[in-house]
Amino acid sequence: MAEQELEMITDTFYRIVDMCYKKCIPPKYIDGELNKGESVCIDRCVAKYFEVNMKIGEALQKKGQQTGVGGSVTGFGA
Amino acid sequence: MAFPNKEPVTKEVAYMQMVQDSCIFKVVLSGVAGFALGGLVGMFFSSFEMGTADPSIYEQPMKQQLKATAKDMFQRSFSTAKNFAIVGAIFTGTECVIEGYRAKNDVYNGTAAGCITGAILAAKAGPQAALMGCAGFAAFSTAIDLYLRRE
């Protein structure tokens, strides 16, 4: 059970890193350090990811309760 | 969870990084640098215009002449330094705020900041002068940014 959770968390982590890297960092590199625009973008990207995760988890749970189908939803969010 | 080969960043280093990235630090730094640069430029340009003193100064002893010259030079360079500091601070402040808002780092931040700075500086002379100031300063800032970002 703990193994599954560790795998889930690692998977989430790498998904976030990949997605936010693609979204926030333009392909032309001037400097090795993150500048202000990129830092702000990454902060917002991670925050949005978790919020979207949470909302979808809640929506799924509500859907599951409504239709009465399926057990508990082990989502990433919470 | 971190990339395996990277050494962990200490809290102090991370805090220093955050401070250096903050807008206020950048504005202060730019103001100080502008003041220093303006002082040098003003001192250089003040040597061209000594004719504004009244001609009776040339009859006074050498020490008086030197004192008057020095006073004029420092006054001029101080006013230039102040102007440069204000321009630098406004430009850096607006550019930093715009970049923080857009969450992007490209050349258009400088263009927008240049337009606002030019408009503020020329605001006293009316709306048309503000427009010209905006266009001029924006073009200048864009040119410098493109040059600095060239491959």
From TrEMBL, chain A:
Keyword tags: Chaperone, Disulfide bond, Membrane, Metal-binding, Mitochondrion, Mitochondrion inner membrane, Protein transport, Translocation, Transport, Zinc
InterPro entries in alphabetical order: Tim10-like, Tim10-like_dom_sf
Molecular functions (GO terms): metal ion binding
Record PANTHER family: MITOCHONDRIAL IMPORT INNER MEMBRANE TRANSLOCASE SUBUNIT TIM10
Biological process terms in GO annotation: protein insertion into mitochondrial inner membrane; protein transport
Functional description taken from the UniProt entry: Mitochondrial intermembrane chaperone that participates in the import and insertion of some multi-pass transmembrane proteins into the mitochondrial inner membrane. Also required for the transfer of beta-barrel precursors from the TOM complex to the sorting and assembly machinery (SAM complex) of the outer membrane. Acts as a chaperone-like protein that protects the hydrophobic precursors from aggregation and guide them through the mitochondrial intermembrane space.
Family note: Belongs to the small Tim family.
Protein source organism: Cetraspora pellucida
Gene3D superfamilies named in the record: Mitochondrial import inner membrane translocase subunit tim13 like domains
Membrane topology: Peripheral membrane protein
Assembly behavior: Heterohexamer.
Swiss-Prot/TrEMBL domain comment: The twin CX3C motif contains 4 conserved Cys residues that form 2 disulfide bonds in the mitochondrial intermembrane space.
Location(s) in or outside the cell: Mitochondrion inner membrane
Chief place where the protein resides: mitochondrion
Domain Tim10-like: 1-62
Name of the protein in question: Mitochondrial import inner membrane translocase subunit
GO CC annotations on file: mitochondrial inner membrane
TrEMBL record, chain B:
Name assigned to this protein: 10621_t:CDS:1
Entry superkingdom: Eukaryota
